Amino acid sequence: MADNKNAQTRVATVLHRMSEMVAEDARYAELFAHDLSTMLDTIQANKGFGEKGEYDPRGNATQGSFSLNHIEGVDDACPHGNPTTHDCELRIQHGVCAGCGRQAVYPK
User: Fold this and answer.
1) Nearest in space to 58 (alpha carbons), one of 36, 89, 77
2) Are 66 and 56 contacting, i.e. CB atoms less than 8 angstroms apart?
3) Closest CA to 79 of 101, 106, 105
């Protein structure tokens, strides 16, 4: 029997569960945000996301400065202003801004 209980399986499982928790209750996002931000900053400082931070999940560091308060594809400027949870349903369909066609991931 193969041992599928390796670090990759464990990390993927925990991150998936945390993602589900955040999707179901925004309070978990607030609970996880500080420590997650610190962890990601440490990984980036140790070049864990590439030599120049190009693989940082918050955004490609060669294209700008990103953090949990500014996520590439979520908080980038759109000519139609910063989306809110309320107006996203009106402007965003399948990850594309209905106003300008810019691809983005906005909250529902």
Assistant:
1) 36
2) yes
3) 101
The tokens of 40 are what?
């990601």
Does the residue 23 lie in any domain?
A: yes
pTM of the model: 0.66
Domain count, the chain: 1
Q: Which of 58-62, 70-74, 90-94 has the highest mean pLDDT?
A: 58-62
Per-residue model confidence (pLDDT) at position 82: 54
The amino acid that residue 107 corresponds to is P
Residue 44 lies in a domain: yes
Count CA atoms closer than 13 A to 11's CA, side-chain side.
Answer: 3
Distance between terminal CA atoms of the chain?
42
Domain assignment present for residue 59? The answer is no
Please report whether residue 21 resides in a domain.
Answer: yes
The per-residue pLDDT for range 30-58, each reduced to its tens digit, is 999 999 999 999 999 999 999 999 999 99
Burial class (CB in 10 A: 0-12, 13-18, 19+), 88: middle
